[in-house]
Amino acid sequence: MDTEKLKKLHDFTGAGLMNCKNALLDCGGDFDAAVAALKASGLADVALMEQEHWLMVELLRSRQAAGNQATGSASKSDAAGSNEHYVLACRDCGFTHSVPRDCNVPPTAFSVDVKAAKLQCVYGGVFQVTLDVGDFFTAARVPESGAVLRASIADNMKVLNDHILSHCDPVYLVIRQSENRTEHSYKRQPAGSTYVSVSKAHGTDIVGNIDVSKAEIPGVSW
Questions:
Q1: Containing domain of residue 195, as a range?
Q2: pTM higher than 0.70, yes or no?
Q3: Any residues with CB less than 8 A from the CB of 145 and at least 6 apart, and which?
Q4: Interstrand relation of 108-113 and 103-105 (parallel, antiparallel or unpaired)
């Protein structure tokens, strides 16, 4: 057993050492596959994983910035589009919220579907978590501002949830789940058999069979 890989898996996922060891053994030592297995089984700490991913993104950005300053020019990775990030604009007022550009820091990949105003994180190339805010926000690419932006579903969801509630209370977070995917969609009315009602006055009510260990739920996950 590669002890360094075991420690890295434990630190990244927050799962117990024995669970990490078993995941690595079951996955033939493949780190990304072990992360996905722990995530899918509910043994990984999603919030910790997203924080660790954000830290890695910031480390890479700082290293790239330092390298560009040293050479006085942009690297080849700064091709067209890589010096942009995204901004979500509220459909009901002038509020905006910035999110990072697409990035891939194994074992996590972050991206934004501009047309749908949907954020996506993929863990280990296997487990996918999405957040659709298209009913309340539009999305567009803008020049990079240099601000610290978090490449995670939970961190962006906390900000967006509070603002959506200022316009729509209660609001409904429709959740659809499969073995390797959890989809979150903010809606003005409930839809389907699995959703969460979120209200400032009444808190959070979960409707239907939702695996909360694989979802981001206001008032429950954070």
A1: 45-71+81-208
A2: no
A3: 85, 98
A4: antiparallel
